[in-house]
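C-alpha cells please, single chain.
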Amino acid sequence: MTRPLSELRTVVDTIDDELIELLERRASLVDEVAAAKRHAGLPLHDPDRERLVIERLAARAKGKFPASAISAVYREVMSACLALQQPISVAYLGPEGTFSHMAARSLFGMGVRYVELPTISAVADAVRRGHVDYGVAPIENSTEGSVSYTLDCLLDGGVFLRREWVLPVEQALLGRAPTLAAITRVISHPQAFGQCRDWLAKHVPHAQLVHATSTAAAAREAATDPTTAAIASRLAAELHGLPVIVSAVQDRTENATRFVLLAREDSPRTGDDKTTISFSLRDGKGALRRALEVFENEGVNLTRIESRPSREKAWDYVFIVDLEGHREDDSVARALQELKERCPIVRQFGSYPRATTAP
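Here you go.
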C-alpha cells in the first residue's frame, strides 16, 4: 500500500536535513585538511586526488541514483569545500556559454573563480604568467581534428598538460530569424563551422559565413541582428536569450571535443596515462621512420601524430605525438631517451590521466 504523500514528503524533508548536516560536517573539516596539507608540504588543490575520489564514489552507484549524477553532485561539493580552503582560478575561452566554459564547469564545478579570456593564447599566457591556476582549452575535435591554436600554445612553452576531458558537443543554430531563408549571415568559430560544414551548405547556402573568436561571442552578436544566426551551444542560447532555430546541426551525431587542462606542471602517474611530446628531425632519408621505431622497440603505442610548423623558420616542421603511458614509466622513459639521441629537439608537454567523458 502506497504511503500518503504528506508522509513521503516528511521522510524526504528529513533526509534532506540529514544531508545538510553531513555537508556541514564535511565543510567543518576543511581547515584541518588545509593545515595537514601545509604541514606535509602538499598543495592545497590536488586535482588528481579529487578525480580519484569522484570516480570511487560514482562506482558505488547502486542503480537508483545514477553514477553521472553522483559525479556531478560531488564535483560541486568538492568545489565548494575547495573554495573554503583556497580560491582556485580557472581561465577559459570566453565569453560565458562557450564549450570551453562548459568543459571548465564540468571539471571544477561552480566553486572556483572563472576568468573568461578572448583567445586560447590568452588562456595559455594567463597560466604561464601565474595569473590563474589553470586554463581549459580545446585540443582536438572528433569531426574537425586538431585545434591548431592550442598546439601552438604548447610549442610556445611554459604550460603543461595536467588532464584531458572529452565533452560531447551538440551545435545549434541560434537566432531571431523567422525562417532559414531570412538568414543573411551565419557567425561562429572556425572549428564550429568545420563541424557543421555539410549542414550549412545544404540548408543555408545563401548565407555569408563570418568567423568569430568563439561560439558564445557569435551568439552575443547574433542577438543584436535578426538576420544573423549563430552556431553555438544551447547554453549560449540561454545566456543570450536566443531561440534555437535548429538543434543538432553538426554533421556527425557523435561529435565530441577533447579538452585539456593547462597548468604549470603535469600530473603524477595514475597507471592509466597518456603523454604528449614534440620532436624535430635531422634532414635525411628515413629520419621519421628511425624516430618512430624507438616507440615500437619499447612497445609504446602512439595514439596520435601530426606535424606543425616549428615557429622557428619557414618550412621547418615539428611532429606532435600522443602516446600511451606516463613519462616516468620505464618503457616510455627509455623510448624518450633514445628519441633524444636520434632527434635534435625533443620536448615533453606533460603526462596526464587518460580522458574521461563528461556526464
